[in-house]
Amino acid sequence: FNPAVARQKSAALLPFLQRGALNDAAMEALSAALTGAPTDLAQQLAAVRDAINDFDFPQAHTAMQALLDSLSTENA
To answer: Is the N end or the C end of the chain the one with fewer CB atoms within 10 Å?
Structure first.
């Protein structure tokens, strides 16, 4: 788990969610970047996935922003 890479992958996904779209490749890249991450970050990623699965893109965007904020406090 590399917080800097995870931040980059999170930031890349945000614009898609803001437009109400999903980029599967970006989501998979983020999932891979969070492999081995602390449990709280994994739970935040699950919240993003749940919102996407419900087609609630505003909630997915909010959850992704929260994940990005949490990643910003992780040491690189």
So the answer is: C
Burial environment of residue 62 by CB neighbours within 10 A (0 to 12, 13 to 18, 19 or more): middle
Task: Please tell me the distance from the alpha carbon of residue 65 to that of residue 71, in angstroms, as a whole number.
Answer: 10
Amino acid identity, residue 53? N
Residue-wise over 47-59: b if at least 16 C-beta within 10 A, else e?
Answer: bbeebbeeeebeb
What is the amino acid identity at position 12?
A
pLDDT tens string 11-69: 999 999 999 998 999 999 999 999 999 999 999 999 999 999 999 999 999 999 999 99
Rounded to two decimals, what is the model's pTM?
0.90
| Amino acid residing at 1 | F
